[in-house]
Amino acid sequence: MTRMNKVLLIVIMFTVAIHAEDIYATFDVKAEQSASLAFSSSGIIDKMHVEIGSVVKKDALLAQLINHDIIAMVNVSKVALDYAKSDYLRQKKVKQHINEAQFDSYLYKYENAKVQLQYQETLLDKTYLRAPFEGIITAKKVEIGDVVSGQMITEVFDIQSLKERKLILKFDQKYHNSVNVGDTFNYKVDGDTNAYTGTIYKVYPTIDSKSRKMSAEVKAEKFPVGLFGDGYITTK
Q1: Choosing a second label site near 107 at 20 to 30 A (CA), which of 38, 50, 70, 141?
Q2: What end-to-end distance do the CA atoms of the chain give, in Å?
Q3: For the whole model, what pTM was predicted?
Q4: What GO CC annotations are associated with the protein (predicted)?
C-alpha cells in the first residue's frame, strides 16, 4: 500500500469515527407476540386443557364450552344432507322424464342441506378455544362452570410467544434524525452482568408528547417479559 493510500484510509476511518455516535437508551422486554384469548360465542365452560405455564403449539385446544346440543344438530344436519343428496342423485338419473321445476326443488334441498351442515359446524367450532400461535400460557381468568359471553368478550387465557422477545427502546427526541433501522444496540439487562448486542429493526415515527422520547425495537430471545435494562445505540 502506497503512502497516499494509507493517508486516505486513515482519513476515511477518522471521518467515520467522527460521524458515528453512541446514543443512550433504556428498554423494556416485551413478548414478540401476545394475546388475550376469548370465545366468540356465549356458553358455559365445560373443559380446560391447559394451566398457567403450559407450553402449547399453534391450534392446540385450550378450552371448550358445553356443546352437546350443537353436536346433536351437526349430526342431524349430516343425516339430512345424506337424504337430500340421495334424493337429488336419484332425480338426476331421471331428469329427462320430470319437469325442470321439480328437479330444481331437489337441487335446492341438497344445496340447502350442505349450507345448514356448514353453519352448524361453524357454531360447533366456536365452542372450542385454540392457540393462535405457539407460546406459553401466562394467565388463566375463568374456571370450569363459569359463564362466558361472546358479546361482552370474557377473556379466558393470556398467551405470549415462548422465546421470541423484543426490546422496546426509549431515547431522547433530539436524536430523531440519527437513529435508523440497522443501527447496533449494545446493552445489558438489569441483574445480568453479560453484555448483549442487537440490531434495530423498527423505529417508531412518532414522539411521546409526555416523556419527549422516541422508541425503537430490537429482537431478542428468552429474557423474561417485564425486565428492563439500558445500553447505547451506535449510529452509522
Answers
A1: 70
A2: 27
A3: 0.77
A4: efflux pump complex
Q: With bands split at pLDDT 50, 70 and 90, how would you rate the model's confidence at 9?
A: very low
List helix spans (H) across the chain: 3-19, 68-93, 100-125
* 68-125 CATH fold: Helix Hairpins (1.10.287)
Rg (CA), the chain: 30
DSSP tag of 134? S
Contact between residue 182 and residue 199 where contact means Cβ atoms under 8 Å apart: yes
What is the DSSP code string of 26-49? EEEEEESSEEEEE-SS-EEEEEE-
| Amino acid identity for residue 44 in this structure | I
Domain boundary assignment for the chain: 20-32+163-234, 68-125
Cell of 235: 449510529
129 conformational bin, left if phi > 0, alpha if psi -120 to 50, beta if neither: beta
What are the distances in angstroms from CA 174 to CA 35, 205, 231? 34, 13, 17
Quote the cell numbers at residue 232. Answer: 447505547
Tell me: the pLDDT tens digits for 62-107?
Answer: 999 999 999 999 999 999 999 999 999 988 888 777 788 888 999 9
3-state DSSP call for residue 57? coil
Task: Please tell me the class of the 20-32+163-234 domain.
Answer: mainly beta
Which pLDDT belongs to residue 3? 58
- Indicate if the pLDDT at residue 10 is higher than 80: no
- Other Cβ atoms less than 10 A from the Cβ of 7: the count is 10
- Give the pLDDT confidence of 164-221 residue by residue, as tens digits: 999 999 999 999 999 999 999 999 999 999 999 999 999 999 999 999 999 999 999 9
